Amino acid sequence: MRVALRRLIGLIAFLVLWEVIVRVGLLPSNVLPPASTVLVRFAGLFGNADFITGAVSTLLSWAIALGLTVLIAVPLGVLLGSVRWLRLSISPIVEFLRPLPAVALIPLVILLLGSDAQTKITLAVFASVWPVLFNTIYAMGEIDRQILDTARVYRTPPLRQLFTVLLPSIAPFTMTGVRLSASISLIVLVTTEYLTLGTVGIGQFVYFSGTTSGRMDMVLAATVFIGLAGYLVNSGLLGVQRRWLGWAAAGGAV
Amino acid sequence: GCSALNGSSSGDNSSDSSSGGLEKTKLNVGILTGQQGVSTKLAEKYGYFKDQGLEVTSKMFASGPAAYPELLNGNMDFIITNYISFFQAIAQKTVQAKIVVDVDQLNENGLVVIAKQGSGIKEAKDLVGKKVSIHQSASVADVLLRATLKDHDVDPNSVHYQQIKFPDIPAAIQAGTIDAGVELEPYITQAEKQGAEPVLKIVTGSTANITAAGYIALDSFIEKNPKTVAAFQRAMVPAQKAAADRTKLLEVLPDLTGVDKDTASLLNIDTFPTSVSASQLQRVITVMQNYGGLTAQLDANQYIVPTPQV
Amino acid sequence: MTRSKWFDFGRRWLVFVAFLVVWQLVTKAVDDPYFPPPTDILAAAKDAFFGNTALTDDILPSIGRILAGWGISVVVGVPLGLALGRSPVVTDYVSPMFFFARSVPAALLVPVFLVAFGIGPRMEIITILWGTIWPILLNTIDGARAVDDVKIETVRAFRISRADWIFGVVLPTALPKVFAGMRLGLSLAIILMVVAELMGGSTSGIGYQMILTQSSFVLSQMWAWIVLVSLLGYVANLLLSMAERRALAWHPGFQTEAAM
Amino acid sequence: MPTMLEVSGLKHRFGGGEGAHTAVRDLSFTVETGELACIVGPSGCGKSTMLRCIAGLIKPTGGTISLHGDKVEGVPGDLAVVFQDYSRSLFPWLTVAGNVEFPLRSAKIPRADRRARAREALESVGLSAAARKYPWQLSGGMQQRVSIARALASRPALLLMDEPFASVDAQTRFELEDLLRRVKQQQGSTVLLVTHDIDESVYLGDRVLVLSKSPASIVADLKVDLPAERDQISTRESAEFVALRAEVARLLRNRTDEAQAAAEDIAEWELSEQETKTEERTS
Amino acid sequence: MPTMLEVSGLKHRFGGGEGAHTAVRDLSFTVETGELACIVGPSGCGKSTMLRCIAGLIKPTGGTISLHGDKVEGVPGDLAVVFQDYSRSLFPWLTVAGNVEFPLRSAKIPRADRRARAREALESVGLSAAARKYPWQLSGGMQQRVSIARALASRPALLLMDEPFASVDAQTRFELEDLLRRVKQQQGSTVLLVTHDIDESVYLGDRVLVLSKSPASIVADLKVDLPAERDQISTRESAEFVALRAEVARLLRNRTDEAQAAAEDIAEWELSEQETKTEERTS
Ligand SMILES: Nc1ncnc2c1ncn2[C@@H]1O[C@H](COP(=O)(O)OP(=O)(O)OP(=O)(O)O)[C@@H](O)[C@H]1O
Ligand SMILES: Nc1ncnc2c1ncn2[C@@H]1O[C@H](COP(=O)(O)OP(=O)(O)OP(=O)(O)O)[C@@H](O)[C@H]1O
Ligand SMILES: [Mg+2]
Ligand SMILES: [Mg+2]
């Protein structure tokens, strides 16, 4: 309960700081509307049918993207983390692919997949695979050798070793990767929607009801929604981490 | 086929009902935001497409270049693009396509340079050494501003060009991030509310009434579906006329721009031509050759499908 | 280099060359303007990068922004992460903002940044900072929390000074994870450089050129810029993994290998 | 001799609610300055927990600990600990020498001095050759000796050692025992040492504290009346030594058996004062 | 009795180039099925390395190891190991019972059977009460016993134990020693056990292998001619026991001293066959 109180205090301090920055005139209020205005707009969003449609689409795409990310990156990370020659052979290609900016790839992906949701999901997965992949590969390198030796000595079959030894060992750090990926994929989804306007989503909503009409309050209200969604999912994942990985010293607070 | 992901609006385009001898009746078209999408929306609303036996689903794109991949991969049958992009694409041989409908001609109040009130910028030569936004390099705004500067005997390279997107220009001017910017509607009207004013016309003189955007289709599509193309062109004629009617325009514009009705009623409205004109398009090519880095010699006649007589 | 190292070297580049060959063959066969073959890209790269001012106008400034944004993220994120990782109470106060801010797309905030920081390197660096700090911060926090109990007790029993505790114990423990975060941050920095140059008013830079060539359909040059970005990421990663190999030389279970 | 350490009524309970576990129950004893007290007791009885409390690493749930008459709150100054889990208490990123020098660095001891002390400590535990290796390159016994060297190098007034010689061979163990007594004599350190080796407890200690089964309380507090200078062969052959080790063994066996028999009425034990009775009831 | 394990010419060098360290040099011995062989040797001499080689965890740089006449490549079947670093060999995410059951689950033993065996094993090491705790809630000695229980529960044909009783008290140690001999007798397991306790090596073993200082080679291979049934009190008092332990102690001391004196001509030692000579040269 103390923790919740501290968080609340932190949040309120942040909102007050925001409000003050605007009220004092450090930034013009049409560029950065005060927190109070934005919060009122935010409450209003839930009565807006366009917004609801967009939010449903974005959140659904997010769930799909995150699921795909985990399904692709964790097995791949375990594989690359344990098979040295494979990691060495593939690393040049991985290292060339990784810095590719999703925004520059938009037309290429549209050409291949069309401009519906699959494009933004693909781009989101492409961008968010890396944190999980890398944290998993790193975690594989950090497993205590004594633990691995123990598993080997008792002839744990490979598959069982994977589920009962490797995954628990890497889970805390992989989970950090998943939480990073969660925010990255949400960002890529919204940015893609915003830049292409091709699919329904929060990004598209922001463009039409915020950007094009110069309504920064609407932009920020939607931003608050995005941030809140990120917050909730992150907290959920953290809860999972605390519940199931409580034995590990690691396991984030953020 | 997931309606929640794509919003509920996307229609099914699988089955082909053959009616009126058209090769294809279900069409997907890509449109742009703002006034350039108005006529298509009106055609949908008032059934001009249906009158021609067409079932059209429109989809919005942020900019011309963004829609090309969808044209190329066959998801879109027609897309609206600005002509600057189109001729660049032609010159780069990225597409083999023709203009089927001329959608939007600029008028002198629809695309102007704006600056803060009392900024001291009043004419072309005042822009020398100033930071001026042109939305994006090699865009319509860029090319027309350079042409206008040249018309006023100002060296186009004496201005610091900045790439700030049309929607962000008013705030950037107000904050002093830039001195001036080429702006279009509906942002001009919004900027005026925030203390900016038009200071220089750039759709005037050699660029007066220059045509800006239109529907294109791939050559292969046009060859295979001549009747469909003609039907589409016929449907767009009343649509273009309707767009020129402010009351009708106001019915659909808010959906295309996000502006409220009050602002929309103050907007400067473009011209909506009802036929494709090779000479108009040749002017675009000339301006691009002079100011837009286009080196190819293009003949506008080769890139149009004349509008059929109704 | 020993024999086996040469063998590794050969094998990994063999895979890469095979990848290039497949790419060439597929793009030739498909013949799509959006997917030019590598040979065309190479030719376009010559036009784009040489015999003009691309190096000084576009490439170096962009690299500078990436390094600045990423560098600040490291300089701020690592110490902050170490501190937060070891002080759960402070973390409780700030975590909501972190949770929150992390998911906010920089693209939506560009107008605010533009007004607050003006056009130019400052705004671009802030944008890059906005995106890169999270993986570095988060990984560092997680790393800092991983100090095992016996080591904490050892440090306390021997009254290890605060500085030695942070730099002598927490930092080395966190280091593998810090490196993971820095690597992720680096590739995000490159991506955000493109976003910043796309939306932030700049008229030069790698990202600017990438988007310009894309919107004017000079697609083989666009690919040349894309490949340049890849190459940059590759080299940056190579340097980082060399640094990492030095810093983690003590690590028993860790085989970090430079990508070469 | 002044009192160095005074433990009175020490209690510690881990956790709360159903899973709570009382590890230490009502421990009281004092240790004089310069004394070497050995602690023996069954596995899991609470010896390590007690040492942790004395080191200020865990806050006991009851009772007080005083050093030089001051109540211990937090980690006292001038203390060194050899942990039972020695392999985890070494820092894998530091070399052996680095590990030994690490506490000295925090104590702001000049570099040259630090080096010299570390070299000397490593030499005394027979690890000069391994100074530049990393802990994971050492055998278990070598790691344990590094952790002993680290504690010795910091020349503490109070030295807490938790089964410090558990993983070294007999020969080395003898040497380390003698080293420890020598160091204690020279530096006047007070030492509290947990061991499972009854012979060792008598040979090393000036006192032997025998603990009961979990939760720990004091069964006996034996004074070891052997000369301060001891010898591995002659001391171990002396009649006092043999008598004392037999007594410690008896006490331990006794307590264990009785504990099993009387597991129910644990609460009634008031053992710390009942040494005499206990001694009469030998099996 | 058929030969269970045959080690011949075993060598192991860690690392390469300048930092190379030869841990084991030319070890050869055999162990019969059902035998319990104790290994003693100075700290850091290469005992754990040898066990790791036999368990197939590290590939020796030279020599061969055969089990039942088959060369060992990788981890052989039907093997259990108690690691010296017991605390790190327990899975922190499993309870004590979960840790003990772990190998049984891999061996596809039915659930009820598994439970029963784990319960039994934990009971035999005196940890029934701790079955549902997590390893970090246990004392050092308790953790070590969990790791012994895990090894016993899997009822291996070959059991490798690296200082398995280092952290338990004397009383428990005696009980575990007797337990081990009983289990070996009943199940016919072959056991290889490293210890630093000379008494223990003689009391427990059917054979005692004495290793030299690093790099390890065999100094002596002593047959323990005590009856199969042993008793903590009477056996330890028997003349053979006393004689044997004195001999082991002598061998160890000797080797250590000589090693220091003759550190230079290490390469010339051919010790494994020279037990008799060694025995004559007692100090
Ligand atoms: N991973 C390693 N890298 C390099 N050297 C090592 C490694 N592991 C062990 N050694 C060295 O090998 C030698 C033998 O180690 P080992 O652990 O086998 O000794 P041991 O006989 O088990 O000693 P102890 O009784 O102290 O456990 C030691 O000198 C040690 O320094
Ligand atoms: N963190 C903990 N949480 C809960 N219980 C604990 C914890 N640490 C220790 N215990 C319990 O406290 C008791 C005493 O533990 P302690 O480590 O002090 O024993 P010990 O006397 O040092 O035993 P050993 O000789 O085996 O090391 C044990 O029964 C153990 O289960
Ligand atoms: Mg203990
Ligand atoms: Mg060992």
From TrEMBL, chain A:
<keyword id="KW-0472">Membrane</keyword>
<dbReference type="InterPro" id="IPR000515">
    <property type="entry name" value="MetI-like"/>
</dbReference>
<feature type="transmembrane region" description="Helical">
    <location>
        <begin position="59"/>
        <end position="83"/>
    </location>
</feature>
<feature type="transmembrane region" description="Helical">
    <location>
        <begin position="121"/>
        <end position="141"/>
    </location>
</feature>
<dbReference type="GO" id="GO:0005886">
    <property type="term" value="C:plasma membrane"/>
</dbReference>
<feature type="transmembrane region" description="Helical">
    <location>
        <begin position="162"/>
        <end position="180"/>
    </location>
</feature>
<dbReference type="Pfam" id="PF00528">
    <property type="entry name" value="BPD_transp_1"/>
</dbReference>
<feature type="transmembrane region" description="Helical">
    <location>
        <begin position="219"/>
        <end position="238"/>
    </location>
</feature>
<keyword id="KW-1133">Transmembrane helix</keyword>
<keyword id="KW-1003">Cell membrane</keyword>
<keyword id="KW-0812">Transmembrane</keyword>
<dbReference type="InterPro" id="IPR035906">
    <property type="entry name" value="MetI-like_sf"/>
</dbReference>
<feature type="transmembrane region" description="Helical">
    <location>
        <begin position="95"/>
        <end position="115"/>
    </location>
</feature>
<dbReference type="GO" id="GO:0055085">
    <property type="term" value="P:transmembrane transport"/>
</dbReference>
<keyword id="KW-0813">Transport</keyword>
UniProtKB/TrEMBL annotation, chain C:
<feature type="transmembrane region" description="Helical">
    <location>
        <begin position="97"/>
        <end position="119"/>
    </location>
</feature>
<feature type="transmembrane region" description="Helical">
    <location>
        <begin position="125"/>
        <end position="141"/>
    </location>
</feature>
<keyword id="KW-1133">Transmembrane helix</keyword>
<keyword id="KW-0472">Membrane</keyword>
<feature type="transmembrane region" description="Helical">
    <location>
        <begin position="66"/>
        <end position="85"/>
    </location>
</feature>
<comment type="similarity">
    <text>Belongs to the binding-protein-dependent transport system permease family.</text>
</comment>
<protein>
    <submittedName>
        <fullName>ABC transporter permease</fullName>
    </submittedName>
</protein>
<keyword id="KW-0812">Transmembrane</keyword>
<keyword id="KW-1003">Cell membrane</keyword>
<dbReference type="GO" id="GO:0005886">
    <property type="term" value="C:plasma membrane"/>
</dbReference>
<dbReference type="GO" id="GO:0055085">
    <property type="term" value="P:transmembrane transport"/>
</dbReference>
<keyword id="KW-0813">Transport</keyword>
<feature type="domain" description="ABC transmembrane type-1">
    <location>
        <begin position="59"/>
        <end position="244"/>
    </location>
</feature>
<dbReference type="InterPro" id="IPR035906">
    <property type="entry name" value="MetI-like_sf"/>
</dbReference>
<feature type="transmembrane region" description="Helical">
    <location>
        <begin position="184"/>
        <end position="202"/>
    </location>
</feature>
Automatic annotation (TrEMBL), chains D, E:
<dbReference type="Pfam" id="PF00005">
    <property type="entry name" value="ABC_tran"/>
</dbReference>
<dbReference type="InterPro" id="IPR003593">
    <property type="entry name" value="AAA+_ATPase"/>
</dbReference>
<keyword id="KW-0067">ATP-binding</keyword>
<dbReference type="GO" id="GO:0005524">
    <property type="term" value="F:ATP binding"/>
</dbReference>
<protein>
    <submittedName>
        <fullName>ABC transporter ATP-binding protein</fullName>
    </submittedName>
</protein>
<dbReference type="GO" id="GO:0016887">
    <property type="term" value="F:ATP hydrolysis activity"/>
</dbReference>
<feature type="domain" description="ABC transporter">
    <location>
        <begin position="5"/>
        <end position="238"/>
    </location>
</feature>
<keyword id="KW-0547">Nucleotide-binding</keyword>
<keyword id="KW-0813">Transport</keyword>
<feature type="compositionally biased region" description="Basic and acidic residues">
    <location>
        <begin position="274"/>
        <end position="283"/>
    </location>
</feature>
<feature type="region of interest" description="Disordered">
    <location>
        <begin position="264"/>
        <end position="283"/>
    </location>
</feature>
<dbReference type="InterPro" id="IPR017871">
    <property type="entry name" value="ABC_transporter-like_CS"/>
</dbReference>
<dbReference type="InterPro" id="IPR050166">
    <property type="entry name" value="ABC_transporter_ATP-bind"/>
</dbReference>
<dbReference type="InterPro" id="IPR003439">
    <property type="entry name" value="ABC_transporter-like_ATP-bd"/>
</dbReference>
<dbReference type="InterPro" id="IPR027417">
    <property type="entry name" value="P-loop_NTPase"/>
</dbReference>
